[in-house]
Each structure stands twice: as C-alpha cells, then as structure tokens.
Amino acid sequence: xxxxRLLSILLLLQTRxxxxxHELADRLEVSVRTIYRDVEALSAxxxxxxxxxxxxxxxxxxxxFRTDVTGLTADESRALFILAAQxxxxxxxxxxxxxxxxxxxxxxxxxxxxxxxxxxxxxxxVDATRWKGGPQPAVDLDVLQDAVFADRRLRLRYxxxxxxxxxxxxxxxxxxxxxAGVWYLVADRRARPRLFRADRVHSATLLPDPVKRRxxxxxxxxxxxxxxxxxxxxxxxxxxxxxxRSRLDMFLRLNASSLAELPEGEGEREWVTxxxxxxxxxxxxxxxxxxxxxxxxxxxxxxxxxxxxxxxxTELYQxxxxxxx
Length: 325
Known about the structure:
Blueprint: H1 2-16, H2 21-28, H3 32-44, E1 49-52, E2 58-61, H4 74-80, E3 83-84, H5 88-91, H6 95-108, H7 114-123, E4 125-126, H8 142-150, E5 152-158, E6 167-179, E7 182-189, E8 192-197, E9 201-210, H9 219-231, E10 237-244, H10 245-254, E11 271-278, E12 294-298, H11 300-324
Parallel strand pairs: 3-4
Antiparallel strand pairs: 1-2, 5-6, 5-9, 6-7, 7-8, 10-11, 10-12
Helix pairs in contact: 1-3, 2-3, 4-7
C-alpha cells in the first residue's frame, strides 16, 4: 500500500539520514521513479524532504526534523513483544537496555494496541536452547563485540574441537550469531568465511587495522554460506536408534550435538526412538558405550559398523583375559 510505503520511506530517512533513491527502491521493491513520486507526495503533505541528484546525491529530511509517528500496526506491535528467553541479551550486556527500550515502545504505541502487546509479552516466550543440550559455558563476548562494532580486525587464540592446543588466527569479523543458545563469530580469514564458536576462543585481541571484508558481503550472506556448509556437508548420515528409557537422559546429554530432532515421549514404552545425524559412518562407533541399552534401527551400514566395533572390543577382552591365565 502507498501509505505504508510513504511511512517506511519517512522512517528510513529519519533513521539513516541521506539515502540514495536506488537503495530505497531496492528496499521497498519498487522503481526509482516511484520513489521520486513518493518523495513529491511526502513534500506535498508537509514533510520537509528533498532529493539531490548526482553521484553523491540522495533523498534526505531537513536537518532536525523528527516525527513521533511509530507507524506500527497491531500485528507489528505484538511481534515486538514476543521476547526471547534470557541468555542472548544477557550475554551481550543488553538485558537492561532491552527492558528500557520496550517500555519506550509501549509508551509510543497507539493506545488501542497496548493491551494486546502487553498480553503477548506475558503469553509468548521464545527459548532457542535445545532440550538436554547440557549447560553452556559462560562466554565473554566483550572483545568480539568491540571488533564487530568498531570494524576492526581480531587476533584469536582458538581451540578446535579435539585439539589439545589453541591455534592463532587473524580474522575480519562480520558479526555474532546465536544459534540454538551457542554464540558464534562469523569472520573472514584470508577472504574466506569461517565460523568460530565463542566458547572455544581462549583469547581475543583487538587489532588497530581496519576490517577487510569481501565487497558486498554482509553478516546474513556469510552466515547463510556457512550454515549451508554445515547442514549440507557431504557424507551427512541420518541414523535412527532405539534407547532404553532408563538410559535416555544420559544418552541425550552425551549425544546432544548429534541429535537431529528431539525424541517424542512415546508414552511409557520401555524403548524410545531417537534420530541422530553423523558426518560419516565411523562416527557412529560412539554408540557402543550404550550397547546394552541401544538398538540401531537404520541404516544397515551403521548397524554393521557398531556390530563390528562391538566384536572388536569383545575380541580384545578375550585376548587380555587369555593373557592373564
């Protein structure tokens, strides 16, 4: 609708200052000609907006002009008050700021929308952490945040999974991402995207050099590329097992990183179906520690791998026992 578009232009200009017409057109998915017509409509309605053409031109509001119009619809106001569980904002040191901001938004809302927004904040809660994923270690994000917002390079001492000692990297950060309760730094290293778990960063040093990101690449672009690499990695293997209920809690805690989805309750049955995801068949050998309380349902190659591992362990014990006789 034109009215919504005009309000969007007004709020973008108020937030951003001078904005090129082509950027507004891209953001609002209209032509540049339509943007100029909208600017004329805003000006005719009394909004002090003007356009400057040329290489460094753009559309801008008269300095000092502000509007108190929020422009929020009823659904938009409710959406703002669907809060995430404590964790993400606390890790960034923004818990108090979030509460203050929401109080200001509530005060600015049209009166008819306030009751629905308040009820939404009390009735809807988003918790991004996984069940039985185990407690997450405390993470110090201060230096990582400083680098992200100051557009500076970082020197990291980072320990990879399974490595005994950390490695040193110089990286160009795009930003921070919280994925299922785990914080990641998204950064380029030698012009290639890399993902660093914040809880594996032993130390981070802010360098004086300005960040060198790939042209035109934003945080969302780099994250999408890395996310696809993780989720669509070659050799991805879906495994279905049945676990005795008496050992289920321990099994879920120790295999949280490999869970493909949370198991259903399945009533009070003795056996519970669990679905896992591994990179390669050999990774499934870790299931052997639950051999007395686990059955591999599929695929056949994983059943064979676990059975072979069990046979090897049995043979080893037999050799050790024979040597003691």
